[in-house]
Amino acid sequence: MLDESMRQCRHWLTFNPGLHLSVNMTAQDLQDSYLIRNVADTLAKHGFNARQLHIEITESNMMTHSRHSRRMISQLHELGVSLSIDDFGTGFSSLAYLKQLPTQAIKIDKSFVRDIASDSSDEIIVRSVIDIAHNMGQVVIAEGIEEPECLERLLALGCDYGQGFLFSRPIPTNEVLPWLRERGELVRQAAV
């Protein structure tokens, strides 16, 4: 999957050089003894800048075989790949991961984001996560943004990036370039 994703993204980079590719990794992926070599080989094969590859790992996946997972995550970081903790806030030791792992970003789980405009508890949690993450040098991405009011609250709280149906539903690969052309300036601004 990484090979095909990188191939496609490399093509889209000709239209917008600021794009990044985000790929989810599972606990099983982190156990693959050839993972680092495969990622390095795939980057080289496609002439892909490692800094434009973001690997997302859920907290629950990090919990599985945590010592080995931490070693693999550190080696991915050494390759220059950006790493993020996905579904932040749903695991058992989120703050410990921020301290121990060489991640550059956290993705706040949609369960905290979805009702942020109407639920003061969600807003308090999201504000606190953003503050902690920024104080630790992390970029913050909010998942599950579906309503403009939600986006407005997140921007007011200082969230760096967002994803969700408000921006786009999943689209087939053959529709990505037209989508980028239509929203090119917005995408370029977000990539800065």
Description:
- With 192 residues, the protein is an alpha/beta fold.
- The chain has one domain: EAL domain (TIM Barrel), CATH 3.20.20.
- It is 52% helix and 15% strand.
- The protein is built from 11 helices and 6 strands.
- It has a 6-stranded parallel β-sheet with strand order 1-2-3-4-5-6.
- Helix 9 links the parallel strand 5 and strand 6.
- The longest helix has 16 residues.
- It is globular.
- The two termini are 27 Å apart.
- The relative contact order is 0.12.
- The C terminus is likely disordered.
Give the key terms.
alpha/beta, TIM Barrel, six-stranded parallel β-sheet, 11 helices, disordered C terminus
In a few lines, what is going on in this structure?
The protein has 192 residues and is of the alpha/beta class. The chain is built from eleven helices and six strands. It has one domain: EAL domain (TIM Barrel), CATH 3.20.20.450.
**Roughly what fraction of the amino acids lie in strands?**
5-15%
Number of helices: 11
> Structural class, from secondary structure content?
alpha/beta
Percentage of helical residues? 40-55%
The number of distinct β-strands equals: 6
Cα-atom radius of gyration: 17 Å
Q: Going by CATH, what is the homologous superfamily?
A: EAL domain
The general outline is globular
**Major sheet, described briefly?**
6 strands, parallel
Q: What is the count of distinct domains?
A: 1
Q: Which consecutive residue ranges, at least 5 long each, have pLDDT under 50?
A: 188-192
